[in-house]
């Protein structure tokens, strides 16, 4: 969860099929969403309310989560990753759904609801959330090894690097430049592209390789038709 870095400490717990991050209150939801939306390996994420393993407390938190929301239909999606409780998912769906019906002018729609209330029971607490936000998808950074991508300054190379990042590769970058025979434009462009791409993996190295003298030597010894190949 380096996507949350730079905004204060956060407690991270690995659950079954989930990662729970306790983010400081000083961090805005918009900033967290923007960062997590570009973390490869994250399918989706949600902002949760917490409640103890108590049905009345869960109902209260659901009411808090629904405050200010307008919805014509809804359904409850209860999931028990923690089974050591006196009530099951079906009982939770019925009890919480009845509570929402009593407190809101709405109807139940199991197949096409306007709003789904997710209730997940995990060890030590219950999580309630409404909206699943899309993540970047793909594979987590680094699980497919490490590679180096050539940044030529065009469009194809950064697109290829981004696609390999999404497939789980840790990507560093290399750019060949002709400075001081030419200005620094190509270097500046490569640095800009590397900064943009690094936002999706949060650390990378850009190698700037001076190639001007080698090009001059090739011009002096090679016929024009062969120079592009030798470059």
From TrEMBL:
Its BP terms in the Gene Ontology are: thiazole biosynthetic process; tRNA 4-thiouridine biosynthesis
By its UniProt entry, which PROSITE patterns does this protein fall under? THUMP (PS51165)
The molecular function terms of the Gene Ontology recorded here are: ATP binding; CCA tRNA nucleotidyltransferase activity; RNA binding
Q: Which SUPFAM superfamilies match?
A: Adenine nucleotide alpha hydrolases-like, THUMP domain-like
Is-annotated flag, keyword ATP-binding? yes
The UniProt keywords, alphabetically, are: ATP-binding, Nucleotide-binding, RNA-binding
**One Pfam family, short name:** THUMP
- GO CC list: cytosol
Domain spans labelled THUMP: 30-132
Query: What InterPro entries does its record include?
Result: Rossmann-like_a/b/a_fold, ThiI_AANH, THUMP_dom, THUMP_ThiI, tRNA_sulfurtransferase_ThiI
Name of the protein this chain belongs to: THUMP domain-containing protein
């Amino acid at each position: 969860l380096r996507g949350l870095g730079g905004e204060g400490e956060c407690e991270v717990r690995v659950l079954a099929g989930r990662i729970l991050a306790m983010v400081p209150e000083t961090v805005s939801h918009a900033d967290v969403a923007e960062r997590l939306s570009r973390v490869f390996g994250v399918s989706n994420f949600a902002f949760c309310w917490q409640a103890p393993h108590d049905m009345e407390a869960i109902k209260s938190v659901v009411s808090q989560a629904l405050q200010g929301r307008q919805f014509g239909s809804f359904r409850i999606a209860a999931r028990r990753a923690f089974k050591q409780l006196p009530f099951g998912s079906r009982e939770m769906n019925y009890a919480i759904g009845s509570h929402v019906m009593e407190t809101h002018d709405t109807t139940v729609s199991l197949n096409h609801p306007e709003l789904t209330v997710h209730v997940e029971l995990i060890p030590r607490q219950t999580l309630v959330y409404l909206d699943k936000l899309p993540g970047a998808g793909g594979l987590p950074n680094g699980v497919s090894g490490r590679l180096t991508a050539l940044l030529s300054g065009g469009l194809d190379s950064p697109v290829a690097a981004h696609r390999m990042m999404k497939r789980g590769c840790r990507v560093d970058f290399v750019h060949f430049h002709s400075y001081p025979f030419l200005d620094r434009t190509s270097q500046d462009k490569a640095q800009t592209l590397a900064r943009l791409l690094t936002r999706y993996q949060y650390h990378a190295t850009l190698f700037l390789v001076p190639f001007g003298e080698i090009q001059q030597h090739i011009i002096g010894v090679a016929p024009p038709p062969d120079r592009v190949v030798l470059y």
